[in-house]
Amino acid sequence: MNHEPQSDAPHAEDDVTNPATAAIIAKQNDAFRTSITGSVKLAGVPPGKLVMTAGIAARSDEFRTALIEALVAFDAFDANSDPYGLHEMGVLVVEAERVWFKFDLYDENFEYGAETPTDPARTRRVLTLLFPSEY
Q1: Less crowded by CB within 10 Å, the N or C end of the chain?
Q2: In a domain, 33, yes or no
């Protein structure tokens, strides 16, 4: 009998420091982040919201468009910026300005932290775009 977890199956503890759990979360974060320009809900993309701070919202349409394009294309995760391999944070440079992105994982009602962050049926993502000065 095979007792190994399946690649996309939630882990009982959902310990984000577990490399297998982190890989599942990273895959889900990447699926959400790279699909945000889609106009329809894509199969396999976990539910969530993209939000931005007032500083980002106040910028030009061109800046925000370039920012979204950079966000979707981002793949520069490394051990310094992504120590657990969750693909939950990154730094983008758009028009010579640094912008951070950050994932937070919530329950189905966006009220509390996700109890089972690898389970897309019970977890909602909030991807925030912000200037470092707004942190």
Answers
A1: N
A2: yes
Domain count, the chain: 1
What's the domain range around 106?
19-38+45-134
Tens-digit pLDDT profile for residues 80-121: 889 999 999 999 999 999 999 999 999 999 999 999 999 999
pTM score: 0.85
Inside any domain, residue 6: no
Measured in residues, the chain has a length of 135
Ordered alpha helix ranges (H), the chain = 19-34, 54-57, 61-73
Distances (CA, A) of 69 to 5, 16, 63, 83, 98: 35, 28, 10, 25, 14
Is 110 within 8 Å of 86 (Cβ atoms)? Answer: no
Q: Which uninterrupted H or E stretch holds 98?
A: strand 97-106
